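Bug #77: duplicate submission created two jobs. Keeping one. Sequence:
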Amino acid sequence: MSTLVFDIETVPDTDLGRRLYGLHDLTDAEVAAVMFRKRREQTGTDFLSHEQHRIVAISVAMRSRDTLKLWSLGDEDAPEKVLIERFFDGIERYTPDLVSWNGSGFDLPVLHYRSLLHGVNAARYWELGEADASFRFRNYLSRYHWRHMDLMDILSGFQPRGRVGLNDTAVLLGLPGKLGMHGDQVWDAYQRGELAGIRAYCETDVLNTYLIFLRFEWVRGKLDATEHAAEIERVRRFLADSEAAHWREFAAAWPS
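Kept job's structure:
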């Protein structure tokens, strides 16, 4: 069985904002400012509703057999539709177990709305047992099934008051946590043309999530101490073999 850990990064869908609010003569930055303001007036927070997010990066870690791979889907200039297609194509081909941090609350709903927009077929992902009986009691969509593990939801005991952010949980476990960027800085970075930095940030979030997942697998008895240590060593080898600046920074912030 393969495990796919994933994370997305998003920016305001300013094309949608123009249509929603009749802002056709404004720049992207001006449209986004209106979107944030209207959301703040409605809810008290400027965090946009799911359909108003446009995906600019999807990063994944794939653990299968004896390999661990971690990368961002598509090229930097790939359109949103291509990123989404590649994500769901991976599920179609490999039927991996999915692991996320707040994936049920944010990443997957955004992917749902954006795949609806672009007409992205994802039959395997939406399977509930009609074509494959094994999905009847273990699918990607049901909250208490384990084909998708939203670690934030699980570790909170499925209680909103028990939820903790990825960074704080990573730091609790002695992991680097978020390095150089936070989610609320992505829009500004995107406007500066720093998509490579956004993708690197997304990848480090994926690795933090994967390392938390390994600890959870140990705690719940799916890995013993020796197996857990071997998986951690595999991650350290991945970091040592990489010349990418964000992985060198991650390794330096995560001493043995």
